[in-house]
Write a structure and sequence with these properties.
Elements (H helix, E strand, L loop, with lengths): L21 H18 L3 H17 L4 H24 L4 H22 L4 H4 L1 H7 L9 H12 L5 H6 L14 E2 L2 E2 L7 H30 L4 H16 L9 H24 L12
Antiparallel strand pairs: 1-2
Helix pairs in contact: 1-2, 1-3, 1-10, 3-10, 7-9, 10-11
Length: 283
């Protein structure tokens, strides 16, 4: 396992499934957790057949970015449910929050009372976290930050309009990476877009995204619209550490989000009321 500064650890590999590395796998796991929550109405079935298996795989990817991604998604979900709770009294909010807190407390208690050396278990995370944003030691940080300096090397036009679509791919011809050739992408949507389309391009892109985000925030009337907002938030977060914005996954999820908003709008018109939680469901 790369990135470790000590030999005292419990795991020598990380789960990657059919992907090249854990951070490729993690977004798909969280995709499944969110979409599964939208499709599966029964909380117990969701926990047993989706949440537990997916969480097990997620934990053993030992992906720092993936854990941060999952944590932010959980926080966003809790904030949405609290907002809904203010408008409609429903004990499901307490159930969800209680389940989350109980799970965290249980895991913490097991670690404290057992003889397990948490340092050896979480070495893949602890040993890599303090160098995660160091451009002198972290390849990912180097590829995210350095192109923002290089964009000003030519002229002000490059700063405004970038170097053109696909130009990031050719950086390896003129620039060296931290430990070898520079990669075809920075794995960060902001860096890639600024380098290729300039500041004007990234402003246009985020204007479109924030318009969609505003539409999601204004419509939280049923499970489909709530799921669209959570999935949209996850898509934006995962684009900060993966190159998924240049893959079919990004646009497939974008289409799913749009469809969920459309379905949610029609669902609300059909019942002609703000139905946050349908009978017998948890979202």
């Amino acid at each position: 396992m790369y990135g470790l500064r000590t030999e005292n650890f419990s795991f020598t590999n990380r789960l990657t499934s059919l992907t090249d590395e854990p951070t490729y796998l993690v977004p798909y796991i969280i995709d499944g957790l969110i979409i599964g929550a939208i499709l599966q109405k029964k909380l117990l079935k969701y926990i047993i057949f989706i949440f537990i298996p997916a969480s097990f795989i997620l934990i053993f990817t030992f992906s720092v970015a993936g854990f941060i991604n999952a944590l932010i998604v959980v926080i966003i979900t809790l904030l949405i449910m609290v907002k809904i709770f203010k408008k409609k009294q429903n004990d499901i909010v307490y159930k969800f929050i209680s389940f989350t807190i109980l799970t965290l407390l249980t895991v913490s208690l097991i670690i404290l009372v057992s003889d397990i050396n948490y340092r050896t278990i979480f070495a893949p995370i602890i040993d890599r976290s303090d160098t995660l944003f160091d451009v002198n030691t972290s390849t990912r940080a180097h590829q995210m930050i350095m192109p923002l300096y290089w964009i000003n090397e030519s002229s002000i036009l490059n700063f405004l309009f970038g170097h053109g679509p696909g130009s990031f791919y050719y950086l390896h011809l003129t620039k060296d990476g931290l430990y070898g050739a520079f990669q075809a992408s920075s794995s960060n949507i902001i860096t890639d877009f600024i380098y290729e389309y300039g500041t004007i391009g990234i402003l246009i892109f985020f204007t479109m995204f924030f318009k969609l985000l505003r539409n999601c925030l204004q419509n939280l009337r049923n499970r489909y619209e709530i799921g669209a907002l959570i999935l949209f938030s996850h898509l934006l977060i995962s684009s900060m550490y993966r190159t998924d914005f240049s893959t079919p996954r990004f646009w497939i999820l974008f289409i799913i989000i749009t469809l969920l908003m459309e379905i949610g709008g029609r669902y609300n018109e059909k019942y002609n009321k703000n139905l946050y939680f349908s009978s017998g469901s948890y979202l």
